[in-house]
User: Fold this.
Amino acid sequence: MLAPAEAIEERHGLAAGELPDEVLDGDRPVVLRGAVAHWPMVGASRGPARDAAAYLNGFRRADAPPVVATVGPPSIQGRFFYNDDLSGFNFRQEQVPLHVVLGTLLKYETDPAPPAIYVGSTSIDTWLPGFRSDNALDFGPRDPLASIWIGNRTRIAPHQDVPDNLACVVAGRRRFTLFPPEQLRNLYVGPLDFTPAGQPISLVDLDAPDLERFPRFAEAMAHARVVELQAGDAIFIPSLWWHQIEALDAFNVLVNYWWRRTPAWMDTPMNALMLALATVRDLPPAQRAAWQDAFNHYVFEPGDATAGHIPDTARRSLGPFDERRAKELREWLRNRLDR
Assistant:
């Protein structure tokens, strides 16, 4: 892999569970060394993998539904990705009880060429009630969604998430490779609406980048940040930062928290992007340029000239949004789209 240019800022010596607001409200990634080292889960992971698995099983609901396990053959070497022509994927997904997944990971722990096994983005409160109270963090006014990720040596290709993200390594080691949002053009992102796990991904293999096929990726790596985390470490990944996550050991567990700095009623901007692709991108050049100006006027550069000439009580979608106004606009859009 090409050498990255920058290190990620690190904080050390935090008090147990301390999460600085200036980090969680920032727009740069920060590593928080030892932020969750006090967790009982991390303590269990310092022994044999079976101890960490037993700790997780201690919270498992007997009546919990199966989890979604992503499984690939040894030949993919842990890289969950598309097939050769991007018409499908190189893995399958199965509905499996969580304790069966944990047992299977232990079974293959010493296998030099195991199948790739990955349980991603699984709600802790649904499948492991009590885990959060036993392994707590204080997020202040934020109310994050907590998820757990379990697997063996796997690679999740560079992708971005809309929410801010605090990722906590609680068993095994993980390597994070981050790219700033503005590196989009240099990451060679694949299809937006046909993805391995919901988010568009870079098509570049970071372990063996093909610079003849993806020459701009060299520029992306010049702006990359790479860090390896041990159990007990955490990393703050701001909204829309691209990140690849590699699990480096035969038994790995990560807990992450997602939250947005916008009201819950705000839709994801990806919906606007997808609709713009269908309605704006293929217009004649002059019309497309006019719409670009309109988007700047109404969305990206609003000011007094945007709606200052309209009485406050009559501005509707040009005025401030709240939950009621957003609901009305969604209904208006549904009616327009369903015609």
